[in-house]
Amino acid sequence: MARYTGPKSKIARKFGDPIFGADKVLSKKNYPPGQHGNNRRRKTSEYGLQLREKQKAKYTYGVLEKQFRHLFHRAQRAKGVTGELLIQFLETRLDNVVFRLGIAPTRSSARQLVSHRHITVDGSVVNIPSYSVKPGQVIGVRERSKSLEVISDALAGFNHSKYPWMEWDQPSLSGKLLHMPERADIPENIKEQLIVELYSK
């Protein structure tokens, strides 16, 4: 599956969750898309629920199947709760950290900023969206990119105190990952245990 570039409202309605942020369509049509979306009453199987949760996580973080599977196996090998580690690894991808810091309005635009070499890690340009940010590393905006309208618009009025695992320095337009986020602090509505059960079959 290539990265999804279609209507975001359609995906939000599919999962019944505003996974791409506030969605006006979802509040009006809180049922799956399609001709018979409002009439579906079929019970979803256990496998279907697990697959749905994995797809929701992939769409939320903009990760392809191969990348997602790699992160899962990495979480499996590490010490700790596999599901929680998986969400932590997704959260500390560079594109997601740029989004959480408010440098970009969406994860897809954050991925674009990283790919176009506008973002630095510890002072060096990094153009790999999947780069894994480590605690203590400083993520900033490249000097010549600080005047970009998309960045200044995204940062205007952004509340930097809502994510306790990061800190923001406005004068330098940079933020630091203080520590790995606790699962309770991550706002995404994902049942990671279902994903673990799916991959464990």
Could you walk me through the main structural features you see in this protein, from its secondary elements to its overall organization?
The protein is α+β, with helices and mostly antiparallel strands. The protein has two domains: 8-34 and 44-89 and 188-199, Ribosomal Protein S4 Delta 41, Chain A, domain 1 (Orthogonal Bundle), CATH 1.10.1050.10; 93-179, Roll (Structural Genomics Hypothetical 15.5 Kd Protein In mrcA-pckA Intergenic Region, Chain A), CATH 3.10.290. It is 41% helix and 8% strand. It has a five-stranded antiparallel beta sheet with strand order 2-1-3-5-4, with helices on one face. A hairpin with a 2-residue loop joins strand 1 and strand 2. The chain starts with 7 loop residues before the first helix and ends with a helix.
